[in-house]
Amino acid sequence: MVHVLSSRVLLRPADPDASRDFYGRTLGLAVYREFGTGPDRGTVYFLGGGFLEVSGRADPPPAETLRLWMQVADCAAAYEEVAARGARIIRPPLQEPWGLIEMWIADPDGHRIVLTEVPAEHPLRYRP
To answer: Which of 58, 94, 100, 126 has the most CB within a 10 Å radius?
Structure first.
């Protein structure tokens, strides 16, 4: 078994400055560390129990298989906040049949991000 000590998602955006603006200003993610210089420098953001590294540059379109899932305390408040900051909203918050409240946004490259709230009565909150 592999003993994982830490993890991060590596993102190679088409426009690194636009992506840093989106993850830092629009989503308000805190910076863990930065490295390198120039427009392709790396920025690593705190992402709950992991990290998101935005570094380098990718010319081809992004793979549509990448999805980021971020749990938030209040999906409605997150919606108001990111909408006011200009995030591209794909779908506003809705309660799903499985009980979670989810909304979908996209980053500058079109990567889909789901912001999810676990309501107080949801089984994921159950602690025996």
So the answer is: 100
